[in-house]
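Our working data are protein records whose layout never changes between entries. An example says more than a description, so a record of this kind follows.
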Amino acid sequence: MNILAVIPARKGSKGIPRKNMRFLCGKPLIWYALQTAVKCGAITDVAVTSDDEETLAYAGQFDCAALKRGPRLSSDSATLDPVVHDAVLRMEASKRTRYDYVVTLQATSPLLSVRSLSAALGQAQSLNLDTLISVEEAGRLSWRAENGGFAPNYAERLNRQQLPKEYRETGAFLISRRGCVTESSRIGRHVGVFPLPENEAVDVDTINDWSVCEAVLKRRKIVFRVDGSRSLGMGHIYHTLALAYRLTGHEISFVTGAGFPEGRLKLEQSNFKVVAVDSDDEFFDYLSRAQADIAVIDCLNTAKDFMLRARQAAKRLVSIEDLGEGAIYADATINALYEGVADNRSNCYSGCEYACLREEFQLAIPKGFSREARRVFVMFGGSDPGNYTRKIYDFALEYHKTAPRIRFDFVAGLAYDPEKFGVVTREDANVFVYHDSSAVSRYMREADLAIIGQGRSIFETASLGIPTIVMAQNFRERAHTFASLGRGFINLGLGDGIHRDTLEKTVTWLIDTPQIREEMRAAMLSFDLKSGVDRVVRIVLGEQ
């Protein structure tokens, strides 16, 4: 089967001057059509027809014929039919052959894949079609001009999914049986359509189309590896989700351990693609099958062998909060919580400037300072393995007896069941409990004082300027040095060893000393925490 691909590339373009040779993501626009045609195994010969010497000189460097087009076929009024017919006749004379099919392949469809083109050629042959046209599904409620007004093109208003199928030509390709290619037509009697995926159907006609193509070509396949549970905590899950939400436009998927249902549930609620694995081998297999451009590993203490295998499966490797021996094998290691750790390594970015606030905290505006403290916010992450929530809950009930005007707002994470531990709202004691809230900042923002764990929540209270008492869940959290007095925190150390008397004196002192709370607030708000996620996005994408 002899198949000729013809790529028309006229010089004149009023919408985008010099369009075919302008660089799109580092390559001339016509390069994408040339690559698709040359790499398509079903195509025998490729010809570029143009009136532009620059385009022909460039195309001549590839495995194709560069055909100089005459003035008659280069005018604004010239249609593609005679242009393609001319190219076919010249190629058949040059190659001393006759083609079975001719593919008109537009340079203005840079997103067309070799896979789609090959499938279309196979469909045209298997169905014995005269013509096969690339299309996209275009079901929309539409109107037409009629009798000086407008009338609907539908009998009843339906949701898009319920509308009849309609197809719009994309211009990416038109496959014609050789006998149907004449000076006036390339369409035969037996016509079929080939729907393209949405991301391949863009035809570059305007600057907006160009921008869409740039965005798609820059899209990366990014795979996050992360676990979360009551025992592990949920901080890694919330952190990677915050990062994934800011990577809009890229193809995101999550891999998580099958034995960590709480983390898996939270990821699935986000509507990202989630893959559960039982072993590292399954993870590496998925990473290879997904053809990941970037792997982001948010797991504690990675091993050397693990990271080396990840490097083989992904083009770029990023590690998060990693103090393991494998961290040095990542292209970048981001340690927002561990300041100064491995700062001598060129691949390490540490400190609060790389904190990734969740989007709700990006949007939340700190309220004004109140000299009278009335509300205390309490939260110990997504799982609270030490059950400090119950400890502070008991304290709040007792504290109410001497300070009834103080309200306590408890927010329990997804992996912590407050009712199981008897942590329930007690309006009579001015204590309120919220479970797995989707708007934590709503309650945090109203607080005059916070009591939290020493995980990533320290960046959240700081972003809102809320004077904070921290209680670490474990020794690893104690290494999160951002939670220090000079930055607006009273750090009580490990929560297990804190007596109620210490807690009462600390809370009372801060409530009764507005000057201290105001100084703590000012120290917190001096940090630009909202820019951290943008910095991390640039690192993940290799742009910093």
